[in-house]
Structure formats: C-alpha cells, structure tokens
Design brief:
Strand content: 25-35%
Largest sheet: 10 strands, mixed
Bound molecules: zinc ion
Helix content: 25-40%
Number of strands: 14
Radius of gyration: 33 Å
Structural class: alpha+beta
Distance between the termini: 61 Å
Number of domains: 3
Length: about 400
C-alpha cells in the first residue's frame, strides 16, 4: 500500500532530484515524504523509494549521507551517551530535543529549496522521535511532551548531550521556636557576602536561617544541587512562628532522586533542628504552587506582648481594643522597611483583637488581621504613619516587646 502511494510520478521526480545530489540515507530521503502515509517510519519510506528508483534504472550512490552526514546511521552513539548521562537520575518521563548545528541547517535548507518541502518533516523532529523511542525501549520510561521530568538535549553544535532536569517542588509549613532567625539568608550589609570583620567572615547578617537549617537534609535526600525556599510571606526575624506554621514551597534544583519518603524526611529535619525549628505537612506539588502561596493574601494571627511608656487603666485599654476590633487600618510603609519597599499607604483590616493579659504597663494581645499588616506599627503608630494605632488611641507610647505568629490561614 505504501509502495503504491509512493509509486507516483510527482514523488519519484522529487526523489530522483535528491539522489542525484549525492548519497542519501533512507531516513533523510524518506523524511522528505513524511506527510505521505502516516504510521510508517521515514526509514521505510526511503528504502521503498530507493527500490522504486533502482527499478526505473536510476543508479544509487553509496557513502555518507549528504544531508545528515551519517547522523541517522549513528543514532546508537547518541542514545548511549544519553543513557550514560541519565543513569544517575531518577525519573518517570523524559523528552528529547535537538540543537541542530549550522551545517545541518544549511543542508536542510538546500534540500528544501530542491524539493519545495511539500511533504517534508524537519530533521529535528525525526531525530527527537527516533532517539526518544530508543531511550523508551532501553529504560522503560515514557516520553512526555507536557511535563517531562528530564529533557534530553542532543547538542549537535557541541557534539554532546545536555540534560535539563525538572526541579522537585515540596509544599510544607514551618514552625520557628527560636527568635532571631530570618527565613532566608541575609547577606552582610558591609561586604555583601564576601566576608568581613563585621560578619565574622561568614558573609551573613545572621548565623542561620530557616532555609539553611532545612537545606542540608533535603539536598542530601534528593541528591540535588541546590534548594530555594519560597515562603508565603515572612515573619520578622525576632518573631517566632508558632501554631499551624507558615506555608512554604521548596524548589530543588537538579534532583537526582524524586521519590523520597517525605514523612521520614520530615522526621529527620525535625530531629536535626530539635527545639529550634520544625516542618510539617510535607507533600509533593507542582511549580504553580509557588505563585499560589506567594500571591495568597493569607490572614494571620499574632500574639503580641506590648510595653507601654506609662501604666494605663484597664478600661482605657479595653476601649482602645474595642475600637481596633474590626477596624480598617491605614498604614504607610513603615520607616524601618521603607528603604526596601515602595513608600505608599496600604489598607489592612483587623478581624479580631483580644486582650489576653494586662498588668498596668504591659499587656498581651492576640490579633487576627489581613496579611501584610505591620503589627509592630499597629502598636507604636510609627510616628502617625499607621492609623488608628494602639499608641494613638491610648495617647501613650507603646512598643512591641515580643511577637509570635500563631496562625497563617492558607
Ligand atoms: Zn541522512
Ligand atoms: Zn561582612
């Protein structure tokens, strides 16, 4: 049937032009007629065309193919190189891509000028498919066009295989029991990470961070090159993170394993950081979870210990608490962060404010509010930049002594 379809004077005329240019392999000849009859390989198309041309008295040259320069007769070399590189990775799916060299692109242009490229498929497409099929056969893994775990790139320019390994993403929540730990590493302000006397040559403002504390265990388990922590917002460095914890996603770069027991990993991280930090609810997610947790305007609940410049009566305090309960707060970017954030006015709501402790000049509050409300300034008023504020309503200077995040709704 295929033979009948190809045995057509228009097709044979084109094929004749091609073989008169020089020796050509079955793949490259057949590929120029790929749109004729689906479900068969280009190699078979090429073989049949050569038989038909030989029958018609055409003399076929042998030798290295003038288009692919022998690439298609040497596919196993590429497959072996790919398998060797893939060997250290765990993956379920892959996809093959090709960076075609300049020489092959020129040859293909010549070919298409000659034939008009009416029935042709690009060289790249056949190469990707043929190498993909062979890797599938050798490994039992499957080609996935949508979300492959690994993209195998045949770099014909550099004559080597490159791998593009999809990161692993893990969602979780962290609890921070100790104050003074930032979420991610802060470079030293003096030396910007190079190391100086101020940072004791660590290059960092703080000795450790949530990211660094969990990184070693995770990187080891996944055999990854690097790990990035994406937090759903961040608490102040001096605030603890308690209650249900703060959602985060870690992104693991170049993982060589992707089927790790997350419960065991969780246990290991928590044992390594006993009393300082814990993670919970680890699970595998897709990349889009990063944007989801970063953009989520999650409501937060804080516990705040407040120190007042002078003692106030409990009724006055209760009155201020009542006024703030449910209030919309107008907050201009706090002075302490205005050097790194746009200076603008934000409106954030307080959903619930409860007085949980009181002793004249100190009090303890629980505040449930919109994400992005600066709680320290809600208490101090930040020189009138936050309004209303506890200090403003009481007419007394007020300052946060202790701050804990006890819930992040997400
Ligand atoms: Zn060829
Ligand atoms: Zn430094």
């Amino acid at each position: 049937m295929l033979r009948d379809e190809l045995n057509n004077e228009e097709i044979l005329e084109i094929a004749r032009k091609i073989i008169r240019e020089g020796p050509i392999c079955n793949h490259c000849l057949g590929r120029q007629f790929a749109k004729i009859s689906s479900g068969v390989s280009n190699e078979l198309r090429g073989k049949i065309l050569k038989e038909l041309l030989a029958d018609s008295g055409e003399v076929l040259e042998t030798g290295k193919c003038w288009l692919c320069n022998g690439l298609f007769t040497d596919l196993d070399r590429w497959v072996e190189a790919a398998l060797k590189k893939l060997d250290r990775y765990e993956y379920d799916s892959f996809l093959v891509g090709t960076k075609v060299s300049g020489l092959l692109m020129e040859n293909e242009d010549l070919m298409w000028e000659l034939t008009g490229a009416v029935f042709a498929e690009p060289l790249k497409a056949e190469l990707n498919r043929e190498v993909g099929k062979r890797i599938e056969r050798a490994t039992g893994k499957r080609v996935d066009f949508e979300k492959p775990d690994i993209v195998v790139i045949l770099n014909l320019w550099r004559d080597e295989i490159e791998l593009n390994v999809k990161p692993v993403f893990i969602y979780g929540r962290y609890l921070k029991y100790k104050r003074g730990i930032p979420q991610t590493r802060w470079y030293c302000r003096e030396c910007r990470g190079r190391g100086c006397a101020r940072c004791n040559f660590t290059g960092k403002m703080y000795a450790e961070s949530v990211e660094e504390l969990i990184k070693t265990s995770i990187i080891d388990e996944f055999g990854a090159d690097d790990m990035i922590l994406h937090g759903s917002g961040r608490e102040d460095i001096d605030a603890r993170m308690l209650g249900s914890g703060r959602p985060f996603v870690v992104e693991l770069k170049e993982p060589s394993r992707r089927h790790v027991d997350l419960q065991a990993l969780e246990d290991k991280i928590n044992a390594d950081n006993n009393g300082k930090l814990a993670v919970t609810a680890l699970r595998y997610v897709d990349r889009d979870m990063v944007a989801r947790i970063k953009n989520a305007k999650a409501r937060k609940t804080y516990r705040v210990v407040v120190e007042l410049r002078r003692a106030v009566k409990e009724e006055a305090l209760m009155d201020a608490v009542t006024k703030l309960n449910g209030a919309m707060i107008e907050q201009r970017t706090p002075l302490r962060v205005v050097h790194r954030r746009a200076d603008l006015v934000r409106r954030r709501r307080i959903y619930e404010l409860n007085l949980v402790g009181y002793s004249g000049s100190t009090c303890e509050l629980e505040v449930k509010c919109d994400g992005g409300l600066y709680v320290k300034e809600l208490i101090s008023g930040d020189g009138g930049r936050t309004s209303p504020s506890l200090s403003g309503l009481l007419g007394v200077e007020a300052e946060v002594k202790e701050l804990d995040v006890i819930d992040v709704e997400l």
